[in-house]
Design a protein that fits this description.
By secondary structure, the chain is an alpha/beta fold. It is 44% helix and 14% strand. It binds 2'-deoxyguanosine-5'-triphosphate (DGT) and calcium ion (2 copies).
Length: 574
């Protein structure tokens, strides 16, 4: 069974955990964490890159040593360093690091002094009052640990959509190859393109259920079988993701797909409509008394309720049923509507490919323009450009545009919005560009008033074009910064600026609800890859998914415009 990026990332994180508990060099620990993040966010499988003979050291944070470890894991399924670390310390110890308030030093002390290896043993030691006696712990710490353990138990882990997609793709291919299987669809929050999923819900139609269930539960990816019957099974994959599989009859396929796509709130609203019509809807079909009136496909289910087909991304009971009733469902934007990408990086700063390779990769996807927006000098960690570096890049873009056919590079910058709302490069430098993408990369904890004001002031700048990743959140890692987003959106409208929907799987920012506000205010949203290498353009599909969740149509999205129309919009007058 193939090794996924998420599996390699999990091993690297586990290595980092062990090294932390052992008190290893912090740089070494960070290297494993960074590599894990790189792998988690990589839109292609590392094993595919290796098969193609690509050099993994091109990837951010991957040096020779880590590249060799990735190859070892892909080739053998094992990592000798991790095997050694697991022999030195019991594996459950690393789980203790997940408890808030327990750093590596404390975990080391708990293990050596009290032989605490698992979360259960930790809870017991706290309840027995044994922890307070340890040097550096005390009664208060003991109480906090107990509370944290209880909170930890009630917390369920969610997976980023792009990570879940790695498993969904493999399992779908696996199930399609099982004899007798006709259709395979991943339903649930995955089909609704939610930014994170709790588990995968897979629907299959097949000649018979039990052979499918048997093959599925015996699949190499499966770590634990939670339940298995004639037509359903629940398993936990080695990567920790739960998967629910159901085999349904073909005549029920549409009804089951509808039911298991959800959301739960949408289903409840649908059932209410059915009741008013004297119908009953469940996962087997739509019924009038005993008679089945629909269920083979989703279109028939909605039609029987007097509704048009509702795209999965809208099924959240946020007005889609009323809109469907009134014939006012949006015609959602599609990936094929995109004409260009307005946020990408190159080797000149923290990207990994040159201008030409980025241009050719965008062209290969059918895009006709690509804005190069490297970082500005304030972002020193990314080797941001100063005016001279930017001028050189602009000259190179001019030369390439002479030579390239079918794709036009636009000159831009991802300029830091400084704490006082000024931009990180002088006016006359920004004025020579095709577009200026402003971004907050520092001072995330300003008060709501200050943070909002900072961004409004940046937008007042005559050359400001677009606000990058407007909420600043990193999924699972950083909350959005505290700003008055409706006010920012209205200000964008007044100033003629645009908002980015950053398609990076860890960002997906604008949030879906904010897309709706932007649409209502008439502010165009640009679905941008923020590519740092040629393969990152593949992330645009997640951005489009988020835009669809935000009800955006083709006309609401800036980069569906032709190059000529875009250029007119970029030359906004104040
Ligand atoms: P997740 O897994 O937390 O990301 O979110 P979902 O939406 O995939 O939720 P999940 O896996 O618990 O259930 C899949 C679908 O099954 C859900 O979207 C709607 C349907 N469903 C589950 N439980 C219920 C229920 O109690 N009532 C109704 N009407 N539908 C349900
Ligand atoms: Ca689910
Ligand atoms: Ca489920």
């Amino acid at each position: 069974m193939p090794v996924h990026n998420a599996d390699i990332a999990a091993r690297f994180n586990e290595i980092a955990d062990y090294l932390e508990i052992q008190g290893a060099n912090p740089f070494r620990i960070r290297a494993y964490r960074n590599a894990a993040r790189t792998l988690d966010e990589l839109p292609q499988e590392a094993r595919t890159l290796l098969e193609k003979g690509e050099d993994l050291t091109r990837l951010p944070g991957i040096g020779d040593d880590l590249a060799a470890k990735i190859r070892e894991i892909v080739d053998t399924g094992r990592c000798s360093l991790l095997d050694r670390l697991r022999r030195e310390l019991p594996p459950a110890v690393t789980e203790l690091l997940q408890i808030p308030g327990l750093g590596p030093k404390r975990v080391r002390a708990l293990y050596h002094e009290l032989e605490v290896q698992t979360v259960e043993q930790l809870a017991r030691a706290a309840r027995d009052g044994r922890i307070r006696a340890l040097p550096g712990f005390g009664e208060k710490t003991e109480r906090n640990i107990l509370q944290a353990v209880e909170a930890h138990a009630s917390q369920t882990r969610r997976f980023k959509l792009a990570v879940a997609a790695q498993y969904a793709d493999t399992l779908t291919a696996f199930l399609r190859a099982v004899p007798g299987v006709v259709q395979v669809t991943v339903a649930g929050s995955f089909r609704r393109m939610r930014e994170t999923v709790g588990d995968l819900d897979i629907l299959v139609t097949a000649a018979a259920g039990s052979p499918v269930i048997q093959r599925f539960t015996a699949c190499d990816e499966v770590a634990e079988v939670l339940s298995a019957g004639g037509t359903r099974a629940s398993v936990v994959l080695k990567g920790g993701l739960q998967v629910d599989l159901r085999v349904v009859e073909r005549q029920s396929y549409g009804a089951a797909l509808c039911y298991f796509t959800g959301s739960k709130a949408h289903n409840i609203a649908i059932r209410r409509i059915a009741q008013k019509l004297g119908l009953k809807v469940n996962e087997y079909g739509v019924f009038r008394g005993e008679e089945r009136v629909a269920g083979e496909d989703e279109v028939s289910v909605y039609r029987s309720l007097g509704l048009p087909f509702i795209p999965p991304e809208l099924r959240e009971d946020r007005g889609e049923i009323e809109a469907a009733h009134a014939g006012r469902l949006p015609r959602l934007v599609e990936i094929s509507d995109l004409r260009g990408d307005l946020h990408a990086h190159t080797k000149a700063t923290d990207g990994h490919d040159c201008l030409r390779d980025m241009a050719l990769a965008a062209k290969a996807l059918g895009l006709v323009y690509l804005a190069i927006t490297d970082h500005s000098r304030h972002l020193a960690v990314a080797h941001g450009l100063d005016p001279l570096g930017l001028a050189r890049q602009c000259e190179e873009i001019d030369r390439l545009n002479q030579e390239l056919d079918g794709i036009t590079l636009l000159k831009g910058i991802e300029v830091d919005i400084l704490e006082d709302g000024s931009l990180d490069l002088p006016d006359e430098v920004l004025g020579r560009l095709d577009l200026v993408v402003g971004a907050v990369h520092s001072q995330f904890h300003l008060s709501r008033a200050k943070q909002t004001d900072r961004i409004l002031r940046a937008m007042d700048h005559p050359h400001f074009t677009m606000l990058a990743h407007p909420s600043g959140r990193l999924i699972g890692r950083r909350e959005p910064y505290d700003v008055d987003m409706p006010r920012i959106i209205r200000h964008a409208r007044d100033r003629g600026c645009f908002l980015e929907l950053n398609a990076h799987p860890e960002r997906l920012d604008l949030l879906d609800s904010q897309c709706q506000v932007a649409k209502e205010e008439g502010v165009l949203v640009s679905v941008n890859s923020d590519a740092h290498s040629t393969i990152d353009f593949a992330n645009l599909k997640y951005g489009v998914g988020q835009a669809r969740r935000g009800w955006l149509e083709k006309d609401d999205v800036l980069n569906t415009r032709s190059l000529a129309a875009l250029q007119r919009l970029l030359k906004r007058t104040l």
